[in-house]
């Protein structure tokens, strides 16, 4: 069994409301083990074997059937999250906002290069496999990147602030009862 995190796109935003307790039940009904959620923005930790694509499809289909709207799901292992957080492709200073955006597929080199060329004085983006490191000088409200830019990378993506990702990674390590290589030390 491998500890994984499912990042659910655009839940608990507007009319796309889901109760995290019910989400845990749905995951358990799908046969996943050690299921728990972290904050109310669609971060579900679970243990399972199998491929990422399989889990993304199964979870997305089950949640769409339950709630009546698309819930695109992005699954990463706990180790993959630690590796993404360790990458740090640019310096982040006070006042900056730093997100990791999860994709379902790795874009081609040409698409990644085109997207990275959208970097500017406010936004810096670095594509690293199926993740995008995204630093903004200022808040996320200051971004100059719109839907047309993100659509270069595919129809759907979901972003999480690295502060939250560090806390989630720490919680996963704490709940496993043992420190893991490359684990975060932020609190």
Task: Reconstruct the topology from this structure.
Layout: E1 2-8, H1 20-29, E2 33-37, E3 43-48, H2 52-67, E4 73-77, H3 78-87, E5 96-102, H4 109-116, E6 123-128, E7 131-137, H5 147-150, E8 158-161, H6 162-176
Antiparallel strand pairs: 1-3, 1-4, 2-3, 5-7, 5-8, 6-7
What is the CATH T-level topology of the largest domain?
Answer: Alpha-Beta Plaits
| Number of structurally distinct domains | 2
Helix percentage? 25-40%
CATH architecture assignment of the largest domain? 2-Layer Sandwich
Q: What is the structural class?
A: alpha+beta
Strand proportion, as a percent range, falls in 25-35%
Arithmetic mean pLDDT: 92
Q: Tell me about the biggest sheet?
A: 4 strands, antiparallel
Distance between the termini: 27 Å
Q: What's the helix-strand series?
A: EHEEHEHEHEEHEH
Could you tell me the number of beta strands? 8
- Structural Rg: 16 Å
Low-confidence runs (pLDDT<50, min 5 residues)?
A: 179-187
Description of the structure:
This protein is of the alpha+beta class and 187 residues long. The protein folds into 2 domains: 2-77, Alpha-Beta Plaits (2-Layer Sandwich), CATH 3.30.70.1280; 81-164, Alpha-Beta Plaits (2-Layer Sandwich). It is built from 6 helices and 8 strands. A hairpin with a 2-residue loop joins strand 6 (123-128) and strand 7 (131-137). The chain is globular.
């Amino acid at each position: 069994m491998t500890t994984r995190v499912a990042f659910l796109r655009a839940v608990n935003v507007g009319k796309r409301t889901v109760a995290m307790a019910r989400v845990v039940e749905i995951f358990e009904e799908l046969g996943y083990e050690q299921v728990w959620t972290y904050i109310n923005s669609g971060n579900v930790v679970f243990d399972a074997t199998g491929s990422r694509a399989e889990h993304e499809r199964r979870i997305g289909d089950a949640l769409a059937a339950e709630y009546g709207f698309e819930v695109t799901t992005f699954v990463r292992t706990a180790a993959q999250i630690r590796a993404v957080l360790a990458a740090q492709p640019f310096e982040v200073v006070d006042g900056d906002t730093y997100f990791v955006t999860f994709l379902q597929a790795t874009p081609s080199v040409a698409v990644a290069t085109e997207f990275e060329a959208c970097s500017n004085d406010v936004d810096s983006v670095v594509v690293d496999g199926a993740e995008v490191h995204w630093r903004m000088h200022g808040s996320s409200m200051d971004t100059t990147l719109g839907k047309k830019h993100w659509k270069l990378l595919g129809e759907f993506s979901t972003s999480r602030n690295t502060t939250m990702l560090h806390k989630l990674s720490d919680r996963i390590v704490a709940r496993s009862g043992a420190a893991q290589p490359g684990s975060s030390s932020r609190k």
